[in-house]
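Attaching the record inline, Q. Sequence:
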Amino acid sequence: MKEKLLHFTSYFHWYDIVLMSAFLMIALCFIFLSFIFFRRKIISIPMFLIGFLLIIALPFVTRYILEERFYKVEIDEIYNKVYNYSDVYQYIGEITNVGKRNIAGCVFSHQILYDTSKDSGFVKYKHMLLNYVKPKHIYNKDIPMSLNVGESVKISQVMEDYPHRDEPFRTKIECYGKGKAGENDKVLVGYKKPPKEEASEPNPLESATTPSAENAENSEVSDTNATTQDSNASQNANINANAPNATFESTQESTQTLQTPQDSNDFSTQDSIESTPQQVEPQTPQIMPPPQMPPQESPQDSIQDNSAELDFQAAEEARKEEERKRREERDNFRVPMLKEAPR
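Structure, as predicted:
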């Protein structure tokens, strides 16, 4: 018990201890005043209850101030699971200090939980309570670092021969301000993240393996424009070739319409000589609009589509090859296994 208490207090900085002492003194003052005014129960009883509640709430308030104010961190999990083809667990994440104090280290805690999905009744609620109070297994490791306010750092932890593949787990990272790094310990140094407004440098691997959405959209727009231009050119050529024939046919139709009423008038004059021939007003020939031909696909468009498809297939094969190499490097990576903390 003494060793656990000393180990717990070793993470506190001097101003953390001052904060806890101040809350404790306030609680003791209320209890002391309740003893002074013990003859007046209306005053003494509420003061004693307030002091007693402050003593009970002291660890919870201190924990909240340390985790949510002084050493608050934002964690971006990149990888947190067991490998598919080997019993190796790996955690990769990025820690950003968004609190009020500089961080001297963090505790990486990997907790194996009880599986409550298969339990029922009292056992289920018991295991749910134990998952918060005392999990099934706990693996802790101190990670010394020098992380100022606003800086970030990436961490990676590996556990080989992982025996809890199918069991639920929880990973927590809690940071502290007191330096505990030894002489031979490697201290991680934080770095400033670039602001979100600035564009990050392009990754050559991504640009070589997978085409971006912008390039794909631009190529699609250029192909569409080329297809439209070719179809318009072919349509204009067809219109120019058919224009004389259309005008000639329209003139023939107009002359026929002009001759038809004259023939009918000749027959009418032979039947009745007294009837006068009707004068037909000449009609202006109407030019019919040229027919619109459907757009035809040019051979250049098919060649461009085939070349774009071949480039995409080559990029996809390169991406798969890079992913396979990265998976082999990750499987060959070996780091000493974490030790289980004493329960």
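The chain is about 50% helix and 20% strand. Residues 1-70 form one domain.

More tomorrow.
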